[in-house]
């Protein structure tokens, strides 16, 4: 069996930087990708070594977790987001409603929106991919718990279009406006290009907001 020092020198002369990897994983609730590990000096042999010894947990191909890092209530969301590519995927629809704490909806799957060019991503049990041909504008995105999610207005309209229960949409609209996460104007603008059903639901929900 290779000693750790031998493993470190097999294919990469870069010394592994445990602190850098820990910092990256800390921003992702203890998770990190193989690509991120390599950037910190951990080659394949080192990853395999630390997985065998139990320091790292292999979650799925190319995705790992620090064994002793505290758990997070929405770990399934983190795993799906990182696996799909954190720079191109966005948590959306019911999953975003949940992360933004805008309704009582309990997502039956992790909802991610990805570019249409990534529509052939390998299907993952428990994950629903939505595709878009348009780039997200800065106003369409926000971060919650370090995870990139659609903004309140975009989330509400997307969920409404996808068929989330009207009472959940109404609750989300009221809470989002009351908490200053969006405005009636932004919500109305977000309905552009969507069905008349969605527009009517959003307008009806806005009327429920306290003056």
Task: Give the helices and strands, then pairings.
Layout (H helix, E strand, L loop, with lengths): L3 H5 L9 H9 L4 E3 H6 L4 H10 L2 E5 L2 E4 L8 H10 L5 E2 L1 H7 L10 E6 L11 E6 L8 E4 L2 E4 L1 H11 L3 H13 L5 H7 L5 H11 L5
Parallel strand pairs: 5-6
Antiparallel strand pairs: 1-3, 2-3, 4-5, 7-8
Helix pairs in contact: 6-7, 7-8, 8-10
Mean of pLDDT: 89
| Morphology call | elongated
Give helix and strand order, one letter per element, not per position. Answer: HHEHHEEHEHEEEEHHHH
Low-confidence stretches: 1-13
Q: How far is the first residue's CA from the last residue's CA?
A: 71 Å
- Helical content stands at 40-55%
Structure explained in plain terms:
- The chain folds into two domains: 4-66, no CATH class; 75-206, no CATH class.
- The protein is elongated.
- α7 (152-162) runs antiparallel to α8.
- The strands form three sheets. It has a three-stranded antiparallel beta sheet with strand order 1-3-2, sandwiched between helices.
- The chain has helices at 4-8, 18-26, 34-39, 44-53, 75-84, 93-99, 152-162, 166-178, 184-190, 196-206; strands at 31-33, 56-60, 63-66, 90-91, 110-115, 127-132, 141-144, 147-150.
- The relative contact order is 0.10.
- Helices cover 42% and strands 16% of the residues.
- The protein has 211 residues and is an alpha+beta fold.
